[in-house]
Design brief:
single chain; about 450 residues; TIM Barrel; 2 domains; 9-stranded mixed beta sheet; binds N-(aminocarbonyl)-beta-alanine; binds zinc ion
Length: about 450
């Protein structure tokens, strides 16, 4: 199958190029002016952009949590991602407390089996770094995994102490892996949560109050210090606030190998949203929590000047009418997480590019190129170049779309951005040369998505 995208504007991190683009089979075969037509399907791309398919490096599909799971699986989540212009993602495998990394990886491969419609990779979350588990880290690259994740929060569940962080980071660095860290001080949060509940402060807004930004700033600085001692490159996940960004900037100025992402939702909501009436604040309960307008301004600045390298989603949906209700009388029982996999590009383009905050080239860099570069997928993905995968988003910068749970494709009963009308949306989406979205229609196939064996991390 050969597809010629004719007369479009190709967008990359360096800027734009007016050209035709030919996809032959699964790969980009040619880029140039007036490419010969012959036996090809021609897509008229005039007046539209061609973007490299979006890459969301932080997702939780079908993530088990006690006796429930996040509500999008590898089929529904992939369909939603595709409609939003995301053609690859990296999900978090989570080691069980007494299990091995290999067992956890097998379980996640089974979750994706037969369902995947876009391409996907895995990070490995280490919850119990016993000596035999530390030894398993050496095998991750041969299993196609070049990132480990550790958490400094969720005490009693996923939280590691500083000695464990050091041990994992050392081992990861030894084997060429990038360590990702959830930076919040879980010990102090645990105290604040208990105090809040004991004082009868049980509404969603206390979730944010028990997780103040100082504790994200402190943990971010601590993670950077431990990574530095370990000689390990570090990637800070879901950074939300100025206090944490200051730590990242200071480390980058010292020449440390430290990168950070924020997630699309942190640019739009504040702690005040957790105080919506009728328990509606539960819809926006995630960790770290939403912050202040000043923190949002700092995040935009970080996206502009390069202190933040990536915009991801931390997509982890739970229904408001069901799973979120578990915390109606106690905010500590609200499953953490928000749905966003479908809306990342729409919202960043709308507020960022249309809003004059970031140029189009930076939009592509944050949503596709840097994710590919940092996570061992470049130049196979994240860029429109001859030889790269034919992951193409035909982006109509004039299309208007109103985001609503009534029409979204995520398997969840609300949308964070409900009622927002954006300008700019995908008109068509291709994964490795196969069209998966055609306007309102899904044309992909469950089982067609491929596991991405990622290359080792290089800075
Ligand atoms: O609230 C969130 N972010 N839930 C998903 C798990 C995590 O912390 O990344
Ligand atoms: Zn996290
Ligand atoms: Zn997460």
């Amino acid at each position: 199958m050969r597809t010629l995208f004719s007369g479009g504007t190709l967008v990359g991190p360096e800027g734009t190029l007016q050209a035709d683009l030919l996809v032959d089979g699964e790969r980009i075969a040619a880029i140039g002016r007036d490419l010969p037509r012959g036996d090809v399907r021609v897509i008229d791309a005039a007046g539209r952009y061609l973007l490299p398919g979006g890459i969301d490096v932080h997702t939780h599909l079908d993530m088990p949590l006690d006796d429930i799971a996040s509500t999008d699986d590898f089929r529904t989540g992939h369909v939603a991602a595709a409609f939003g212009g995301t053609t690859s993602h990296i999900d978090f495998v989570i080691q069980s407390k007494d299990g091995s990394l290999r067992q956890a990886l097998d379980a996640w491969h089974a979750l994706a089996q037969g369902k995947a419609c876009i391409d996907y990779g895995f990070h490995m979350t280490i919850a119990d770094p016993r000596p035999d588990v530390l030894d398993e880290i050496a095998h991750l690259p041969e299993w196609g995994i070049t990132t480990v994740k550790v958490l400094m929060a969720y005490k009693g569940r996923l939280q590691l102490d500083d000695a464990q962080l050091l041990a994992v980071m050392r081992r990861a660095a030894e084997h060429g892996l990038l360590t990702m860290v959830h930076c919040e001080n879980g010990d102090v949060i645990d105290v604040l949560e208990r105090e809040a509940v004991a004082a009868g402060h049980r509404e969603p807004k206390y979730h944010a109050m028990a997780r103040p930004p100082e504790l994200e700033g402190e943990a971010t600085g601590r993670a950077i210090a431990i990574a530095s001692v370990a000689g390990a490159p570090l990637y800070v996940v879901h950074l939300t606030c100025e206090a944490a960004l200051d730590q990242v900037r200071a480390a980058q100025r010292r020449g440390r190998h430290v990168w950070a992402e924020t997630c699309i939702q942190y640019l739009f909501f504040t702690a005040a949203d957790l105080d919506r009436p009728d328990f509606e604040g539960a819809k926006v309960v995630c960790s770290p929590p939403f912050r202040t307008p000043q923190d949002q301004a700092a995040l935009w600045e970080g996206l502009r000047d390069g202190a933040l390298a990536v915009v991801s989603t931390d997509h982890c949906p739970f229904n408001f009418a069901r799973e979120k209700q578990r915390g109606r009388h106690d905010f500590t029982k609200i499953p953490n997480g928000v749905p966003a996999i479908e809306d990342r590009l729409l919202m960043l383009h709308h507020a960022g590019v249309n809003g004059g905050r970031i140029p189009l080239s930076r939009f592509v860099e944050l949503t596709a190129t840097n994710p590919a570069r940092l996570f061992g997928l470049y130049p196979r993905k994240g860029i429109l170049e001859v030889g790269s995968d034919g992951d193409i988003v035909l982006w109509d910068p004039r299309a208007r779309r109103t985001i609503t749970a009534g029409t979204h494709h995520m398997r969840v009963d609300y949308n964070l951005f409900e009622g927002t009308t954006v300008t700019g949306a995908p008109a068509g989406v291709w994964v490795r040369g196969t069209q998966v979205v055609d306007g309102e229609r899904f044309t992909g196939r469950a089982g067609a998505g491929q596991f991405l064996r990622r290359a080792a991390f290089t800075s």
